[in-house]
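User: Second chain of the day. Same drill as before.
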Amino acid sequence: MACLIAVAASIASPAVFADPIPVHYPEGTVHGFLSLSDNDGKILASGDLIMIVRGSQVNAHIVYRFKDGSVDDETTIFTQRGFFRLVSDHHVQKGPYFPHPMDVMIDVPHSTVTFHTTDKNGKDQAASNHMNLPPDLYNGLIGSIVKNVKADAPLTRVSMLVMAPKPRIVRMAISPSGEEPYTLAGLEHKAKAFNIKIEIGGVEGMIAPLVGKAPPDIKLWVVPGDVPVIVREEAQLFQDSPILNTLEVSPVWPK
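Assistant: Same format as last time:
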């Protein structure tokens, strides 16, 4: 499931990176259908999740096509031999829905981050930066990671790269938050809820909540079992965007 967390940048303290997440439930070939809506239930976009296994690598592609013609398109390549490891992540947002269109490419083997975006004044910004990318960097993989965190772990931390306004690494603190009911074909079931807090770190991490700049938490719901599945996500798509809901959906046939 796709999201971009943007925060205000200032002075950062050195990050403490964790080990990669072990693979308990490997990803396979799948094609899923998604909807993106606001908190009033208004559908903004339809989406596709396509995951293809090619040898030792998995190619995950999530694309949302908005009613106004905008597109949010993310392609993530990763390996899952024992541990999840990001290879690359290419995330594009363009169209009238996005106030600051962007094109960001993370290349882990070459330790580079290339981006093209616009600032708040509409000025183009483009650069290619060499960065120390941690082994637990999981852009585009947060759904897979949440499904594989230890069931009894009160807190799991992983890394994510954000544009703030230049690329930087933040921490994501994943914690379970109980069970919540849902219905399927009229029958009630329960999903495990997870809360993900963005830890900015450094001086700005302490100041952000005081000035109302702390990014809102991400929320995910997982149906557990032999093949756990993400069934809902609540998150922002960009800085100052509303909280949006992503749901798995099925085709609707005419009566």
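Residues 142-148 form the longest helix (7 residues).

User: Great, on to the next one.
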